[in-house]
Amino acid sequence: MIILSDECKKCNYICNAIYFQQNFESWTSGNDDIDKFIQGTQLSAHYSTKGALEWIPYNRFNDIKYIEKIGVYITNWIDGYVYDWDYKNQSWERKDQNIYVILKCFNIIETIVSEFENSKTTIHKIYGITQEPQTKNYMMILNNTCKKCNYECNVTHYQQDFKNWTSSNNDIDRFIQDTQLSAHKYTTSALEWIPYDRFYNIKYIAKGGFSKIYKANWIDGYIHKWDKYNNNWERQDKNMFVALKNLNDSKNITLDFMNELIFHHEVEFDHGSVKFYGITQDPETNNYVMVLEYADDGSLRKYLDKNFNKLNWKSKIICLNEIITELEFIHENDLIHRDLHIGNILKFQYKTAITDMGLCKPANCDMQKNNVYGVLTYIAPEILQGKIYTKAADIY
Fold first, then answer.
1. Contact (CB, 8 A) for 347 and 295
2. pTM of the predicted model, to two decimals?
3. Distance CA 130, CA 139 (A)
4. Cys bridge to 190: 112, 180, 307, 310, which one at CB 3.0-4.6 A?
């Protein structure tokens, strides 16, 4: 236990500056100017530790990755930064263990002094200085900020977690990561890789042309926002119902499979259609599975079978308008659904939404070799005559 008797002459009590000062002999950077600079910041930290730098041994970082030519690296800082003095344990209390930080090389002391002064008026924070043992280069430790937002936005938090998950498929990993790297302000556009064991009560409910649909409870619920106090994602709707769309033979990834993921994400994100939460994998079949918003009332066909006689004209018009608006949005994005029928329209408590983008194609896609898919009674006559799919065929 550290016993201190010297009070700070400025504060008239044992403040942060005294605790830092008592530790001066236990570290050195090997450079007098750097030592004096660090000590100067610590001796000025009377009331708050925010302005105090540390000398941080290089072995307190792991998983160091080179990211820029000018000597910039991203890494995990094992200990996290000094937050406050712990009187009970007589040691520094630290926060954000294993936090991602940036290591940036510098050649002269004036560089770090300038960066430190600039950090006082910007969101960029300098935690301290370290030294790479092989090159002997000194490096400043900076907070990991988004270059677009100039602060630690959702993207930085998603990025920090990339090494903790994989779908075992590079295309899917890249797709999920791309959605996360675009989610600067809001998490609604970001997908997740969700381990299959995070679902329970999995029950088969329907079969489509290229998939099987299951209903399940999702233990964790979806990501809502970053909890800066607990340094983790805050989630909502734990144990919520979701639909698991198990895509046939998807263990062997095809272009059509990736297109369904991409098109569904585009429509859901831009238009608020059927929510797409993430992707998982069935451990028995190895098929990939889309994790989607569960439709309380099922398909429009099922809904009408049960409720048609109860619906008034206003309800019918609202439902029809929602379908028209959804299809209009798909067409405005130069996409053709190609499999639009009453079974691929879902009825929720507060909305009607088009789903199943498995056969969706760009309007300018070369479809000369036109295979006929879908429910016969909903296929436009010109398609049965061998003509190509158009937006008009969707409307039929």
1. yes
2. 0.66
3. 5
4. 180
- Assess whether pLDDT exceeds 60 at residue 5: no
Rounded to whole angstroms, the Cα distance separating 45 from 53 reads 10
% of the chain surpassing 70 pLDDT = 83
pLDDT at 377: 67
Q: What is the pLDDT of residues 57-89, one digit of tens each?
A: 999 999 888 876 678 888 889 999 999 999 889
pLDDT at 317: 86
First to last CA, the chain: 81
Segment holding 62, helix H or strand E: strand 61-68
Q: Which residues of 63-91 are buried (b: 16+ CB within 10 A; e: fewer)?
A: eeeeeeeebebbbbbebbbbeebeeeeee
Q: How deeply is 340 buried, as exposed, middle or buried, from its count of CB atoms within 10 A (0-12, 13-18, 19+)?
A: buried
Give me the residues paired with residue 128 across strands: 54, 141
Mean pLDDT of 370-379: 66
Q: If you ran DSSP here, which 8-state letter would residue 308 be given? A: G
d(CA 150, CA 158): 16
* Distance separating alpha carbons of residues 101 and 140, to the nearest angstrom: 10
Average pLDDT along the chain: 82
Average pLDDT value for residue range 179-187: 89
Q: Determine the residue type at 132.
A: E
| Domains of the chain, start order | 16-152 (3.30.200), 156-294 (3.30.200.20), 300-395 (1.10.510.10)
C-alpha distance from residue 351 to each of 240, 301, 319, 390 (Å):
18, 15, 8, 26
CA dihedral 363, 367, 373, 375 (to 10 degrees): 40
Spatial CB neighbours of 1, under 8 Å, sequence gap ≥ 6: 90
In whole angstroms, what is the distance from residue 303 CA to residue 224 CA?
30
